[in-house]
Amino acid sequence: MLWADRSREALFLPSQKLINSMKRILLSVILSGLMLSSFSQSDQDVTVLTLDDCINTALERNILLKQTRNNQIIAESNRFQSIMNFFPTLSASINYDYFFGNFFDTNAATQVSATTNSSNPNVASRVTLFNGFSNHYLVRQRKNELDAAIQTTESTRRNIESLILGSYLTVILDKENIKIARERVELLEAQLDREKKRESVGVGNLESVYNFQSQLATQKLTLNNLQNTLQRDLLTLFQAMALDPGNEYEVQSYEVQEQDLLLEVASFDEVLEESLSSSPALMAARSSYSASRYRLKSARAQRLPTISATGVIGSNYSSNGARNPSTGEIEPDATFVDQMQYNEFEYLNFSMNIPIFTRFQTTNTIQTAKVNMINAELDVSQALVNVTNTVQSVYLDLVSAQQTYRSAKENLEATSQTFEFMKKRYETGNTDFYTYLESLNNKNRAELEMINAKYSIVFRQKILELYRESNSSVN
Hints:
The protein is an alpha+beta fold.
């Protein structure tokens, strides 16, 4: 019996081991699936942003741009209303009155003292024939205000593009600086590890180890500061785009073509002329000035007489009856419909209103319009100065950046060769640590200068494109 029990246990144990093994395999598969799902979800949550994505998102979400578009809609509505001012007004009215006491009823042609019900339905129309050409001036004023609103919208759009472009390239530049700093850290770590091994076998010395440790710590601090700067600049970019900084975003690097960096720039006079001719801010200021001129003319027109015509078609009803025009007799029991036919009338009136004394309201309106026109003219001058100064600054910076890039490129080639030479000499013990470190610093400095010059060229090229093109779009 004991042998039989052991035999059954022996048969059971492999099966139990197999079950436990299957459980472990199944658990591993489940955990692996969860980890892969987590990684996949993490990858999906990261949104890659190109330059076009950043600009389009900012244009879609920017509140100021939405407000300027709403102002454009208002300007379009005002222009339509100014055109409709030439058309006559048309209105219909009806009333039902109760009279108590003594009065003369014109419908019944008799003096009555009883309570009387009456009604006077009519349709009236009024048109202004002359108001000192104020309506004509208003149409032109509204037209220029609409043009100004359209150009203001375009100017706002370009400003947003410029803001996003600057923020985007700043982030890209931060990443390039971090890349250089990280490469420097890796190089110093490798050199430190080498010096530690040399010192451990008695070939090197502790001074070199300490020097590399000090430089490595300093460079790690620099790298940390650069990473903090990147986070601040990313926040600035995301805020300009109205994005939630809590979400995961990856700003894609901007590909710069080497041949595009040193393209010959057009002459300054040509660039300035194109910028002034297509500047929406300048065109908006000029349209506002034109609108202010017509506003002044409209204000002066208030001193002139106003001639208008009024036409009315209506009828009367009275509970006391009405005279039948066909028979000439009074019909006390005439119905409402009958009286509408009996008392139907047509009325046409021409009137002229001459302003004599308006408590200086017209004078004050004219003075205010005149000052507003002067201010609008100053706005044109200021817009001209702003565009000219901006183009001058960007053009000069672009030319300087191209010159700097040429020099920085040559300097980087020279410093890289010097560094490789000094690195070999240092590794063979033919030069000291400080000479090696100086060559490394010169190489990194040249890299930073070239990268800064490169993205400075890109930024200013695209800013000039924004100013020179009539319908700009940064690509």
